[in-house]
Write a structure and sequence with these properties.
Layout (H helix, E strand, L loop, with lengths): L2 E5 L3 H12 L3 E5 L11 E4 L2 E4 L9 H9 L9 E2 L4 E4 L5 E4 L6 H9 L3 H24 L5 H9 L3 H5 L5 H8 L3 H8 L18 H8 L3 E2 L5 H13 L4 E2 L4 E7 L2 E7 L2 E4 L2 E4 L3 H8 L6 H8 L6 E10 L7 E4 L4 H9 L11 E4 L12 E10 L15 H15 L8 E7 L1 H8 L16 H4 L10 E3 L10 H15 L64
Parallel strand pairs: 1-2, 1-13, 2-9, 6-15, 13-19
Antiparallel strand pairs: 3-4, 5-8, 6-7, 10-11, 11-12, 14-17, 14-18, 15-16, 16-17
Helix pairs in contact: 1-10, 1-17, 3-4, 4-9, 7-8, 11-12
Length: 550
């Protein structure tokens, strides 16, 4: 038996701990805050309960795989979200997308005119090929240059991935309607990125959301992390809360444990579920892994989020997921990623309002989670979210934007709870409140994201700031990869099992849409937990053909 210490009790840390404990390791988890979950947080007020992290689940079969591998089904139900999302564009056009992908073309045609559905179908077919290329080969394995080269050498691989093309470039190339282009560009924000700089491969996220469906866990997605925590307890994994790790111990170039509460805790391996920037800037000795630290400093942080939690009287009966787009989408990314970051004047507004009795005090009320993209908290660059009066003024601005879209909630307000990027930094430990760690910008974005095998022997990285990226599905894949890299306790990895893969056969990625059968267990912050893969960069780069949250 080997001893493993996990830093952080977010979903990635807990999922890794459960997998390693089931594989025979002695595992201990240390969490800096007084609750598990990380970005899968929760706020309770006046009988209302709000998820403060991801609000949409895709690929629920990944949770099935986690629970099957660690002891069996966990009894965590999922429900289809239908409609999957309701979009309102700046001109007032309203697009409602159904849960069933077979009905999506008709929805596009009915709203945007004949031919829009066919354009979506062509995009969906293209993205299906992309998913075949990156889903297993890239996302569920340790990322290496040879793996990317193998993928690029598959028939049509390099041409399909097209690392020289951006999401915006792809949208302009394949979608005739500017509103459809805006809709597709939104998926770049699932990785907290600018669609003008994000490789087109991230468009595969739209395919995953429509092909495998949008799902919800009754009681809120917070139940996912609570259920994984319960599995850790059942496996004998101690999870110490209010127990911040002060230092990762390094001897002779190898990680040998951590310092916590002033004492050394030795380990054969350390798994870091904290943000990669926190690991390199605060936990590792300054002389350890200097190249990795410098490389990480050169990457732009992802978007942060400005959140309103609204307790409302009455029930609207509207779709659970709604997006309200601005007239000038590019201005949003200029505000977030420009040289002088500032709050977005006319932001995209995401609203999550699940019809869930468990989350409201009575049947004459509803809670709304409202999110807009925001630049990270960075007072040195002039973006100080703790500046006096800013949170109140910007909260009013977001309510004004909703009212301009015909959704004025002020007469129904019982309370408004505000979470700024500075608050998110304090709550989750993410530098500046960056939801996804680093942005996925440039054709080599995949190779720039920290790998799961750390820069020192005995060190591993898991979670949204490491490969393959943020969101519930990718974080679960990250945990699977790390557990595979460490391997079973006391015996070599089974023959024929690739590093990072399960020794058992993998289940389908999503529940069967046909009939009533549903899995008993399943599977921003972010509006969605759809995977937004760190985009591959494979092969030589051809000349450029053209040149978020959600």
């Amino acid at each position: 038996m080997s001893r493993v210490v996990v830093i952080g009790a977010g979903l990635g840390g807990l999922a890794t701990a459960a997998r390693l404990a089931a594989a025979g390791h002695e595992v201990t988890v240390h969490e800096r805050s007084d609750a598990v979950g990380g970005k899968l947080g929760v706020v309770e007020r006046d009988g209302f309960t709000f998820d403060t992290g991801p609000s949409l689940l895709t690929l629920p079969g990944l949770l099935d795989d986690l629970f099957t591998t660690t002891g069996g089904p966990a009894g965590l139900p999922v429900e289809a979200v239908d409609p999957a999302c309701d979009y309102t564009f700046a001109d007032g056009t309203r697009l409602t997308l159904p849960h069933d992908p077979a009905a999506v073309p008709a929805a596009f045609d009915a709203t945007l005119g004949a031919g829009a559905g066919a354009a979506w179908s062509r995009l969906h077919a293209r993205s299906r090929h992309l998913w075949d290329l990156v889903g297993e080969e890239v996302l569920r394995r340790p990322l290496t240059l040879p793996a990317l080269l193998r993928m690029s050498l598959r028939p049509g691989g390099l041409r399909a991935v097209a690392p020289w093309r951006t999401v915006r470039g792809l949208a302009r190339r394949v979608l005739p309607d500017p509103r459809m282009r805006t809709w597709l560009e939104r998926y770049a924000t699932y990785s907290g990125s600018d669609p003008r700089r994000t490789p087109a491969v991230l468009s595969v996220t739209s395919f995953v959301e429509q092909e495998f469906g949008a799902w919800y866990v009754p009681g809120g997605l917070r139940r996912i992390v609570e259920t994984v925590h319960e599995r850790c307890r059942a496996l004998g994994v101690p999870v110490h809360l209010s127990s911040p790790v002060q230092e990762v111990l390094v001897e002779s170039g190898r990680v040998v444990g951590v310092r916590v509460d002033g004492r050394e805790e030795r380990a054969d391996a350390v798994v870091c579920n904290a943000d990669a920037a926190v690991l390199h800037e605060r936990l590792l000795p300054r002389t350890a892994a200097p190249r990795a630290r410098r490389r990480l400093r050169r990457i732009a942080p992802s978007t942060a989020g400005f959140v309103l939690l609204l307790g409302l009287s009455g029930r609207s009966g509207a779709a659970a997921h709604r997006v309200f787009f601005p007239a000038d989408y590019a201005a949003e990314f200029d505000a977030v990623f420009g040289r002088r970051p500032h709050p977005i004047e006319d932001p995209t507004v995401y609203v999550h309002a699940p019809d869930d009795p468990a989350l409201r005090p009575d049947d004459d009320s509803e809670g709304w989670f409202v999110l807009v993209n925001a630049p990270v908290h960075d007072p040195q660059r002039g973006m100080d979210w703790d500046a006096p009066g800013l949170r109140e003024a910007y909260a009013e601005r977001v309510l004004d934007v909703l009212a301009a879209h015909g959704v004025d909630v002020r007469p129904r307000l019982r309370f408004v709870e505000v979470l700024t990027p500075a608050d998110l930094e304090r709550r989750t430990g993410s530098p500046g409140g960056a939801i996804y760690g680093t942005a996925s910008h440039g054709p080599r974005a995949a190779l720039r994201r920290p790998a799961n095998a750390g820069p020192l022997p005995g060190l591993y990285l898991v979670g949204g700031s490491a490969h393959p990226g943020g969101g519930i599905p990718l974080v679960l894949m990250s945990a699977e990869i790390v557990a595979g890299l460490i391997g079973p306790a006391g015996r070599p990895r089974p023959a024929g099992t690739a590093p990072g893969s399960s020794a058992t056969s993998r289940p389908r990625a999503a529940p069967d849409r046909r009939g009533p059968a549903r899995p008993t267990s399943s599977g921003t912050s972010s509006p969605s937990s759809s995977p937004a893969p760190a985009p591959p960069s494979a092969g030589p780069r051809p000349p450029a053909s053209g040149a978020r949250p959600r």
